[in-house]
Write a structure and sequence with these properties.
By secondary structure, the protein is mainly α. It has ten helices and no strands. The protein has two domains: 1-104, Rna Polymerase Sigma Factor, Chain: A (Orthogonal Bundle), CATH 1.10.1740.10; 118-209, Winged helix-like DNA-binding domain superfamily/Winged helix DNA-binding domain (Arc Repressor Mutant, subunit A).
């Protein structure tokens, strides 16, 4: 079973995940390892975008899994394991954010993308595409913590509004409001900057030609 199978709502994969959790409750080392392997990359990517500090990412990931495993007896099987795990991690990121000032800087999102090389990847690795990614994610970093979390969970983690509501512990209507306000703010932030970037790259191409 892969994590993508479980996340897709495949009934068989869902049953396998629940069986894995039951084994993990009995402290089956192999089951615990499989749960970690299935979710660690996506969890780390989410936490990084929230805290922007590599040391904190490692610490929060480890603490999230430890807390999840320690409280497996309270896990509600009506939720996906990832929803429950991200709920724990989100609360830990908020605590970390309160303790530290935000870290500025850009990151190439390809760091957390697991797809193999392709023509699309080669295009995305161009200097222009990398810079535009940086521009977009720098704008995302300017959102409030709940808005940023909602955007990351919805667009990067493919969580539904109901799942995001469970993770953030807010009503579904509030999730939709966060997404709407985030999209509006991102559009306001990005439209003038992307227009300027497009002009700059057009001029550079003309000189290069």
């Amino acid at each position: 079973m892969t994590n993508l199978d479980a996340e897709s709502g495949n009934p068989r994969a869902r049953r396998e995940e629940l069986a894995l959790i039951e084994r993990a409750k009995r402290r089956d080392a192999d089951a615990l390892r499989q749960l970690i392997d299935a979710h660690k990359d996506r969890l780390a990517a989410f936490i990084w975008r929230m805290v922007r500090n590599h040391d904190d990412v490692e610490d929060i990931c480890q603490e999230a899994f430890l807390k999840a495993f320690a409280a497996l007896h309270t896990f509600d099987p009506s939720y996906r394991f990832s929803t429950w795990l991200f709920t724990i991690a989100y609360r830990l990121t908020l605590n970390a954010a309160r303790r530290k000032k935000p870290v500025s800087g850009d990151i190439d999102l390809a760091t957390f993308e697991g797809a193999g090389p392709s023509a699309a990847d080669e295009v995305a690795s161009s200097e222009e595409a990398r810079h535009l990614k940086s521009v977009v994610w720098t704008a995302v970093d300017r959102l409030s913590a709940p808005q940023r979390a909602a955007v990351l969970l919805f667009y990067k983690q493919q969580q539904s509004c109901h799942e995001i509501a469970a993770i953030l512990d807010i009503p579904v209507a509030t999730v939709k409001s966060h997404l709407h306000r985030a999209r509006t703010k991102l559009r306001d932030l990005l439209e003038p900057q992307l227009a300027e970037e497009n002009t700059r790259y057009r001029i550079l191409r003309e000189f290069a030609g």
